[in-house]
TrEMBL record, chain A:
<dbReference type="InterPro" id="IPR001041">
    <property type="entry name" value="2Fe-2S_ferredoxin-type"/>
</dbReference>
<dbReference type="GO" id="GO:0016491">
    <property type="term" value="F:oxidoreductase activity"/>
</dbReference>
<dbReference type="InterPro" id="IPR036010">
    <property type="entry name" value="2Fe-2S_ferredoxin-like_sf"/>
</dbReference>
<feature type="domain" description="4Fe-4S ferredoxin-type">
    <location>
        <begin position="176"/>
        <end position="205"/>
    </location>
</feature>
<dbReference type="InterPro" id="IPR027467">
    <property type="entry name" value="MopterinOxRdtase_cofactor_BS"/>
</dbReference>
<dbReference type="InterPro" id="IPR017900">
    <property type="entry name" value="4Fe4S_Fe_S_CS"/>
</dbReference>
<dbReference type="Pfam" id="PF13510">
    <property type="entry name" value="Fer2_4"/>
</dbReference>
<dbReference type="GO" id="GO:0046872">
    <property type="term" value="F:metal ion binding"/>
</dbReference>
<feature type="domain" description="4Fe-4S Mo/W bis-MGD-type">
    <location>
        <begin position="263"/>
        <end position="319"/>
    </location>
</feature>
UniProtKB/TrEMBL annotation, chain B:
<dbReference type="InterPro" id="IPR037207">
    <property type="entry name" value="Nuop51_4Fe4S-bd_sf"/>
</dbReference>
<dbReference type="InterPro" id="IPR001949">
    <property type="entry name" value="NADH-UbQ_OxRdtase_51kDa_CS"/>
</dbReference>
<dbReference type="InterPro" id="IPR041921">
    <property type="entry name" value="NuoE_N"/>
</dbReference>
<dbReference type="GO" id="GO:0046872">
    <property type="term" value="F:metal ion binding"/>
</dbReference>
<dbReference type="GO" id="GO:0008137">
    <property type="term" value="F:NADH dehydrogenase (ubiquinone) activity"/>
</dbReference>
<keyword id="KW-0479">Metal-binding</keyword>
<dbReference type="InterPro" id="IPR011538">
    <property type="entry name" value="Nuo51_FMN-bd"/>
</dbReference>
<dbReference type="GO" id="GO:0010181">
    <property type="term" value="F:FMN binding"/>
</dbReference>
<dbReference type="InterPro" id="IPR019554">
    <property type="entry name" value="Soluble_ligand-bd"/>
</dbReference>
Length: 320, 621
C-alpha cells in the first residue's frame, strides 16, 4: 500500500503562535456612589458596582445565576433625579449617576419591606432575611398578631384589621425528595425561573393568583408527581427561605437532629455522566444530608439534575 | 419544550369554542386527531406554528369562558396543546384575571358594582340585599365588582351570559329586584338607556362640543353617517401631510396624554417614529378602569370610527403596520360597536393594505382585558397582549424603546387618540390656543356622585372645580359638599374649601392634586367618608398584581389599618396608626415597581390631610 493517492493529507504545521481572542472593548462610565466617584463598565448593574466597592447591598430575589426580576425591592437605592428609588439588582448604570445606598429613604424602604415580609411570611428558616431584619431594625410585630389566611378569589374578603393577614397554608409533602412549605414563601420568583428558561426548561410551576393571594403553583395545584416536575431540585437550590426543602433536611429538622455546625462540605465531581458537574456534599455524622452545587462553577452554574442532586444513597449503603 | 398534559380532556363544546378562535387543530401535536400519513411532516411545523400563537392565550380563555361560563381543567389542557403553553403557566395566567373562573359557575353571572361612585348611590345596600336573597358574593350567580365604568347611572351591574354567542347586558341604574327577577326568569331588560347615549352627556347637542359632537347624534354603527359628519377627512389629510408633518402638528398642539400620566403625545410619537428597531406597534389603551372614569366608554360606544381614525393616523405617522386596541373586558357594547366599525372601515379601505391607495398598510386588532385594573398600566397591558399575567415591567426600558413584543411602541389613551383628528382639523398651532398655556385643547370630565346631572362634560381647559360642579347642576337641593375625589382612586381628595382649583394640569399640580383621567366624584355631607376610604384601600389590595413586596403586602396592611381606624380599635394608639400609615405610604410610593403601588396611598392620605374630622376619636369633633 503506497501513500500516493491516499485521500488524507495532514495540514502544514503552523509557525504562528495562536493569540487569545481580543478582549471585547467595554466602555467605562463614571458614577458616584455614596460620595465616591468610580469607573465601571457600562454593562454593569448598580449592584455589580456596589459589590465591587464592598458595599453590602441586601438582596433576596437576586441570584447570580438567574435573570433579575427585581420584585423584592430590598436592594433599592436612591438615584438623584429619579422620582422613586431604583432596584440595584437590575438597573444598569449610566454615566453621571449619583447614587446613595444608605440614605434615610433607602433605610425606611428596606425596613418596611422586611416588616411586610416578616409579618406575612414565616422566616424561621431564612437566616439571611433575619439578619437583615436586625440590621434595619424592622419590627414585623407592629402589625398585630398573625392571622391564618385562607385564599379567596373575591375582593370582598371580610377584614377587621385586628390581625395581620399571613400567607399561611398547609405544608405540601407529596413526594420522597422534597417538601414545599409555602407559608415560608416570599414570592421571589427564583424557583419559577430555575424551573423555566433560566435553567431547567420544565415549566412545572408558575405564579398563580393575584395580589396577596399570589402563590407558586402547579396547574390547578396538582401534586408534584402529577405535574411536569422532573425532580431536578434546582428550585430548592435557589430558594432563599427554606420554603422548598430537601426531604432529608425537613425530616431531620422535624426530628431535631439537623445541626449545621456539625456539617462539613466537600466538593467532588458527579460520577453519573460525562458532563462533570461539581457537587457539594453536605455531610453530618458521616452521612450525606444534602447536595448542592456552587454557583460559580462554569459547568452547572449551580444547577444539577435529579441524579446528581438526589442519587447519593448508594454511597451510604455500607452494610451489604 | 416537552408539554406535560395531565388529567381531563376538553368537552366537544370546549374544543369548538377554542377552535372557533384558532381554527381546527392541524395535528395531533396540537391537540388534533392522529393522521399517520401526514403526522411526521406536520409535526415539524406544528410546534413552531403553535408557539407563534402563544400571545392568543387570553383570547382562548375568553372563548371558553364566554361559551361555557368557566374554564375547566380539560379546556385549559386543550388550550395548552393548541398554543404550546405549559399548563402551570397557563393556570397562572388564567387565575390572574378575575373575569375567568376556574371552578364551575352558572352560565349567567351578575357583576354588581360596590365601588365608591355606586356605593354612595345605593350600590352597597344593593349588594347587601343580594347577599340575603342570593347568598354571599362569588358563591353562584352574582358577585361584587370594582367600578364598572357606569358611574353616571349608578348603581350599576353587568350581566355576563355564556352562550354560543355570549352576551353582556348592562343594568344601570339597577335594583335588587331587577337582578333577582332577571336571574329567576332569565329575562333582562333591553339596554334601552344605551340606545340613547346623549343621556350620559348632559351637554349633548351643544355647538361647542368638539370631542363629543357626534355622540348620540349619529348612528355609531354606520360608516356613511361618520363620513357625512366629516369623518375620515383627517386621515386623507394625514396621508397628504406625511409622517413628519403629522408629528409636527401634534407637537405644535402641545397635546398631553389624557390617560392620567399627562405625557406630551408628540414626543412619544417622535421617539417611536425615529426608533431603528422594527416593527413598530401602536396600542390604544382602552382598559379604562380607574374608579369614576367612563369617558372612554362613551367615546367608543358613541363614536367608534373616531377612535379608529385617530389610531390609524397615529399608526401611519409612527411607522406602525399593526395596532392593538386593548379593551376593558367589562365593556361589551363598546366591544361590539368597535368590532363592527373595524369590519366596515376595512371594507371601505380605511384599514388594511394600501390604505386609500397610499401604499401604506395598517390594521387594528381588538384585545380584551379580563378584569384587572393593573392592565391599564402600560407595561402590564403589553404583557397582557402577549398572553401573560398582567404584571408591570420595570422601566427603563420605556415603551418607546421596548414595548409590546419587545418592539418600539406608541401607547395612547382613547381620548388622546380622539383628539388627533381634531388637531389636524384645527391645525396644531390653533389647537394650542385652546385652553391654557400648558393645558391645551378640550378635555373630558367624568362627573358622578352627588351632583344633579352626572355624566361626561367637555370643556376647553380653564374652568375651576366649582364651575364644573355648577355646570353639572351642583349638589342636590339642601345638601352640602363634604369632599370631592379628583382623578379616581389613584387621585386626591379635596375639601369644600378647595373648590377654586383650576382644572388644568398645572393648576391641580400647584394644589397638590391631580387631574388623572378626569374623574370628579362629589360626596355630600351624608356620606360616611371612612367607609369610602376603606373601600379605596380594599380596591388597591384587590387590584395589586402581587409582584413586588411593597405593594403586595403594603396594600393589605393599609387596608387592615383603615379597618382599625374605622372601628376605633388602634393597635397602640391613633397617633401610632397614622404614623404607620405614613410609613406604609412612603415605601409604596418609593419602592413599588409601577404606578399602582406608587399611588395606592395617595387618595387616602390626601383625605386625612384635606378633610376635617375623619376618624376622630370618640368624644372629639
Amino acid at each position: 500500500m503506497s501513500n500516493d493517492g491516499y485521500w488524507f493529507q495532514a495540514p502544514p504545521v503552523s509557525t504562528r503562535i495562536p493569540l487569545p481572542p481580543a478582549e471585547p472593548v467595554v466602555e467605562l462610565v463614571d458614577i458616584t456612589i455614596d460620595g465616591r466617584t468610580v469607573q465601571a463598565p457600562k454593562t454593569s448593574t448598580i449592584l455589580d458596582v456596589t459589590r465591587s466597592l464592598g458595599i453590602d447591598t441586601p438582596t433576596l430575589c437576586f441570584l447570580e445565576n438567574l435573570t433579575p426580576v427585581n420584585v423584592c425591592r430590598i436592594c433599592v437605592v436612591e438615584l438623584t433625579g429619579a422620582r422613586t428609588l431604583v432596584p440595584a439588582c437590575s438597573r444598569k448604570i449610566e454615566a453621571g449617576m449619583v447614587i446613595q445606598t444608605d440614605s434615610p429613604r433607602v433605610r425606611l424602604a428596606r425596613k418596611m419591606v422586611l416588616e411586610f415580609l416578616g409579618s406575612s411570611v414565616d422566616l424561621s428558616t431564612a437566616p439571611q432575611a433575619q439578619s437583615y431584619i436586625e440590621r434595619y431594625d424592622a419590627k414585623p410585630d407592629r402589625y398585630g398578631p398573625r392571622k391564618e389566611s385562607a385564599r379567596t378569589h373575591d375582593h370582598a374578603e371580610a377584614v377587621d384589621g385586628t390581625k395581620a393577614r399571613t400567607t399561611q397554608v398547609p405544608v405540601k409533602i407529596d413526594n420522597d425528595l422534597y417538601v414545599r412549605d409555602y407559608s415560608k414563601c416570599i414570592l421571589c420568583y427564583k424557583c419559577v425561573e430555575a424551573c423555566g428558561t433560566d435553567a431547567q426548561n420544565t415549566f412545572a410551576i408558575a405564579v398563580a393568583g393575584r395580589g396577596f393571594q399570589s402563590h407558586i403553583s402547579t396547574e390547578a395545584d396538582v401534586p408534584l408527581p402529577d405535574s411536569a416536575c422532573v425532580y431536578c431540585g434546582n428550585c430548592i437550590g435557589v430558594c432563599p427561605t427554606g420554603a422548598l426543602m430537601f426531604k432529608s433536611e425537613f425530616d431531620m429538622r422535624a426530628a431535631g437532629t439537623w445541626d449545621e455546625s456539625k456539617q462539613t462540605q466537600t466538593d467532588t465531581i458527579c460520577s453519573f455522566c460525562g458532563v462533570g458537574c461539581t457537587l457539594t456534599l453536605h455531610v453530618q455524622d458521616n452521612s450525606i444530608v444534602k447536595v448542592t452545587s456552587p454557583l460559580d462553577v462554569e459547568v452547572t452554574h449551580g444547577h444539577l439534575c435529579i441524579k446528581g442532586r438526589f442519587g447519593y444513597q448508594y454511597v451510604q449503603n455500607r452494610d451489604e | 419544550m416537552d408539554l406535560h398534559i395531565h388529567g381531563d380532556t376538553a368537552s366537544p363544546q370546549e374544543r369548538e369554542a377554542v377552535d372557533g378562535l384558532l381554527g381546527p387543530a392541524p395535528s395531533a401535536w396540537m391537540g388534533g386527531l392522529r393522521n399517520l400519513n401526514e403526522e411526521g411532516r406536520i409535526a415539524l411545523v406544528g410546534g413552531q406554528e403553535s408557539r407563534t400563537q402563544r400571545h392568543r392565550l387570553i383570547e382562548a380563555f375568553h372563548a371558553v369562558q364566554g361559551r361555557i361560563g368557566w374554564v375547566s381543567e380539560g379546556a385549559l389542557n386543550y388550550i395548552c396543546q393548541r398554543l404550546s403553553v405549559p399548563p402551570a403557566e397557563a393556570y397562572g395566567v388564567a387565575t390572574f384575571y378575575h373575569l375567568f373562573s376556574l371552578s364551575p359557575r352558572p352560565s349567567t353571572v351578575v357583576h354588581v358594582c360596590d365601588d365608591i361612585a355606586c356605593r354612595i348611590k345605593g350600590g352597597e345596600n344593593l349588594c347587601q340585599d343580594l347577599e340575603k336573597t342570593l347568598g354571599p358574593s362569588g358563591s353562584g350567580s352574582w358577585q361584587r365588582s370594582p367600578c364598572l365604568g357606569l358611574c353616571e347611572r349608578a348603581p350599576a351591574a353587568l350581566t355576563l351570559q355564556a352562550a354560543t354567542t355570549p352576551r353582556g347586558i348592562t343594568l344601570a341604574p339597577t335594583s335588587g329586584e331587577e337582578i333577582t327577577q332577571g336571574l329567576k326568569q332569565n329575562a333582562w331588560p333591553v339596554d334601552e338607556p344605551f340606545q340613547n347615549l346623549s343621556r350620559s352627556i348632559p351637554p349633548s347637542g351643544s355647538r361647542e362640543l368638539r370631542l363629543l359632537k357626534r355622540i348620540g347624534k349619529i348612528d355609531p354603527e354606520s360608516i356613511e353617517a361618520y363620513i357625512l359628519s366629516g369623518g375620515y377627512a383627517r386621515l386623507k389629510q394625514a396621508l397628504a401631510l406625511g409622517s413628519e408633518g403629522v408629528i409636527r402638528e401634534v407637537l405644535d398642539s402641545k397635546l398631553m396624554g389624557r390617560g392620567g400620566a399627562a405625557f406630551p403625545t408628540g414626543r412619544k410619537w417622535e421617539a417611536v417614529a425615529k426608533a431603528p428597531a422594527k416593527p413598530h406597534y401602536l396600542v390604544c389603551n382602552a382598559d379604562e378602569s380607574e374608579p369614576g372614569t367612563f369617558k372612554d366608554r362613551l367615546l367608543m360606544e358613541g363614536d367608534p370610527f373616531a377612535v379608529l381614525e385617530g389610531m390609524t393616523i397615529a399608526g401611519l405617522a409612527t411607522g406602525c403596520e399593526k395596532g392593538f386596541l386593548y379593551l376593558r373586558g367589562e365593556y361589551p357594547l363598546a366591544g361590539k360597536r368597535l368590532a363592527l366599525a373595524l369590519d366596515l372601515a376595512r371594507f371601505a379601505g380605511f384599514l388594511g393594505e394600501n390604505i386609500l391607495e397610499s401604499g401604506l398598510n395598517f390594521d387594528i386588532e381588538i384585545r380584551r382585558g379580563a378584569g384587572a385594573y393593573i392592565c391599564g398600566e402600560e407595561t402590564a397591558l403589553f404583557n397582557s397582549i402577549e398572553g401573560k399575567r398582567g404584571e408591570p415591567r420595570n422601566k427603563p426600558p420605556f415603551p418607546v424603546q421596548e414595548g409590546v413584543f419587545g418592539k418600539p411602541t406608541v401607547i395612547n389613551n382613547v381620548e388622546t387618540l380622539v383628539n388627533i383628528p381634531l388637531i389636524l382639523k384645527e391645525g396644531g398651532k390653533a389647537y394650542a390656543q385652546l385652553g391654557t398655556e400648558s393645558s391645551t385643547g378640550p378635555k373630558l370630565f367624568c362627573l358622578s356622585g352627588h351632583v344633579a346631572r352626572p355624566g361626561v362634560y367637555e370643556t376647553t381647559f380653564g374652568p375651576t372645580l366649582r364651575q364644573m360642579i355648577e355646570i353639572a347642576g351642583g349638589v342636590p337641593e339642601g345638601r352640602k359638599i363634604q369632599a370631592i375625589l379628583l382623578g379616581g382612586a389613584a387621585g386626591v381628595f379635596v375639601g369644600p374649601d378647595q373648590l377654586d382649583i383650576p382644572l388644568t394640569f398645572e393648576g391641580t399640580r400647584a394644589a397638590n392634586a391631580t387631574l388623572g383621567s378626569g374623574v370628579i366624584i362629589i360626596f355630600d355631607d351624608r356620606v360616611d367618608m371612612t367607609d369610602i376610604l376603606t373601600r379605596i384601600a380594599e380596591f388597591f389590595r384587590a387590584e395589586s398584581c402581587g409582584q413586588c413586596v411593597p405593594c403586595r403586602v403594603g396594600t393589605v396592611r393599609q387596608e387592615e389599618l383603615f379597618h382599625r381606624l374605622r372601628s376605633q380599635q388602634p393597635l397602640v394608639s391613633r397617633e401610632e396608626e397614622l404614623n404607620l400609615l405614613k410609613e406604609i405610604g412612603q415605601v409604596m410610593r418609593d419602592a413599588s415597581i409601577c404606578g399602582l403601588g406608587q399611588t395606592a396611598s395617595s387618595a387616602v392620605e390626601s383625605a386625612l390631610k384635606n378633610l376635617k374630622g375623619l376618624f376622630a376619636e370618640r368624644g372629639q369633633p
